[in-house]
Amino acid sequence: MRLLTSDAATLESQEPRKDLPCTVTPSQPTLGFDLKFHSGYEVTVPLKDLAGSDNQLTMVFRVTPKNHPDEPVYFSQHVPVPLLDDDASGPAYLQGTFEVGEGKYHVDWMMRDRAERLCSFYWDIDASLPSKDKQMALDIAPTLVQPADHEPFKQEAPVERQQQDAPLNVKVVVNFAPQDSGSATLQPLDVNALISILRNIGRDPRIGKFSVVAYNMQEQRVIYQQQDASQIDFPGLGKALNSLNLGTVNLKRLSQKHGDTEFLANLITKELKDEKPDAVIFAGPKVMLEEGLSQDTLKQLSDVKLPVFYMNYNLNPQVNPWRDAIGNAVKYLKGLEFTITRPRDVFFSWTEIMGHIVKSKFAKSASTNAFAQ
User: What are the tens digits of pLDDT across the range 64-85?
Assistant: First the structure.
C-alpha cells in the first residue's frame, strides 16, 4: 500500500492523539479452531462527532514482529459515514482483525476523517502457546502477519503422502449442524471447528484415501459425499453446504414421528458396513434424540470390525454432559469418543486417534501375514 507522509509520521510518533474523539480497545491474540492466532481491535466514535455528510473514516495500521523490526505489515480500512443529524447520539462501533503466528508484535494504529482529524493508538501483543501445547502444529508460521481469512473452504495444498507402507484409508462422517439444534443458522465458529477437524485429518501424510460424508440432522439428509479421494475437496463441500436451509421445516419430516432416529440409524449402519476404510471417524455436535437407536439397530453393527471414533464438538460440555445417540453407538462398538471444546482438543485427539488406527492396521497386517504363512 502507498502510505501518505502524514500517516507515516503519525504512526512513527508513538503519541496517542484524539483530535477525532475515539476509544480503541485492542484484543490480545487468541487461538482459533483454524489453528491461527487472531487479534485486532474495536474502536468507538461518538456519532455526534461524525455529524454531517460526505465523510469517510480511514484506518491505517501496521503490525511489526519485535524480532523482525524491519518487516512491518501494513493494513488499511475505509469506512463511508452516512448522513448523520447534528443531534445524533450514541457511539459508532468499528473493528479490524488480522492473524499472526507465535511471537511478540507492536501495533501502530491511526484513523482520520476527511477533515484530517486524527485518532491514534499504540499497543503490544503476544501470541504464544502454553508450554503443554508447544507440540501443536499451527497453520501459520511464527512471526507471520496476514489479513484475516474469511474463506473457510479454500483448497488445501497437496500433501506428500508416505509411500513406504500401505497408505491408510479413512472415512469421516460429519454432522454439519450448529451447537444449538434449534438454530436457524450455521455459525462461523461451528463451521471453522468442523472444517478444522477435516483439515487435521486431511493433512496426515499416512492417509492415502479419504471418504467424506457430510450430513445435517435437522434436515435429515446427506449433503455431500466424496469417495476414496486422494485429497478432501473443501470447495466442493462448501458449495454443497450452501444448500442448507435450517430455517424451514419439511412437512414430510413432521409427519414422521421418529424420522430423525430412523435417518441416523440408516446412516450409521450404511457407513459402518463399508469394508473399505481402515477406520471410521464420526464428528459434529451432539445428536440428542427423543428416541435413541434401538437394540436391533445396534445388533446389526455387531459384526463391524473397524476402529470407530467420535470427535464430539461440544463447546459447553458441562451444559450437556450426557452421551448422545452417536456416542452410544460408538461405545457399543468399543470405539473411543473425544470431546472437542478448544482448538487444542482437535490436535491432541487426532494424534491419539491416529495412533490407534496405525496400531490396528499393523495388527491386522501382522495377522494376515501370519495366516498366509
Answer: 999 999 999 999 999 998 888 8
**Angle between the 234-241 and 188-202 helix axes, to the nearest 10 degrees?**
150
β pairing state of 55-65 and 103-112:
antiparallel
Phi, psi of 262 (to 5 degrees): -65, -45
Q: Distance between CA atoms of 353 and 338, rounded to whole angstroms?
A: 9
Closest CA to 175 of 184, 165, 186, 166: 186
Does residue 302 contact residue 268 with C-beta atoms inside 8 Å?
no
Q: Contact, 338 vs 310, CB < 8 A? A: yes
Residue 21: what residue type?
A: P
C-alpha cell at 157: 495444498
- Name the grid cell of 68: 523482525
Do residues 123 and 203 make contact, with C-beta atoms less than 8 angstroms apart? no
Contacts of 145 (CB under 8 A, 6+ apart): 63, 65, 73, 98, 99, 100, 101, 105
Using CB atoms within 10 A of its CB, is residue 362 exposed (0-12), middle (13-18) or buried (19+)?
Answer: exposed
The SS3 call for residue 329 is helix
* Integer Rg of the chain from CA: 25
The phi and psi torsions of 76 (rounded to 5 degrees) equal -145, 150
Instruction: Give residue 253's pLDDT band: very low, low, confident or very high (50, 70, 90).
Output: low
User: DSSP label at 320?
Assistant: -
CA distances in angstroms from 82 to 42, 115, 306, listed in the order given: 20, 15, 61
**23 Cβ contact list (under 8 Å, min separation 6):** 43, 44
Q: How many CB atoms lie within 10 A of CB 373?
A: 5
Q: How many CB atoms lie within 10 A of CB 270?
A: 12
CB 105 within 8 A of CB 44: no
Confidence of residue 252 (pLDDT cuts 50, 70, 90): low
d(CA 340, CA 315): 7
Tell me the C-alpha to C-alpha distance, in Å, between residue 49 and each of 43, 83, 129, 320.
14, 12, 41, 47
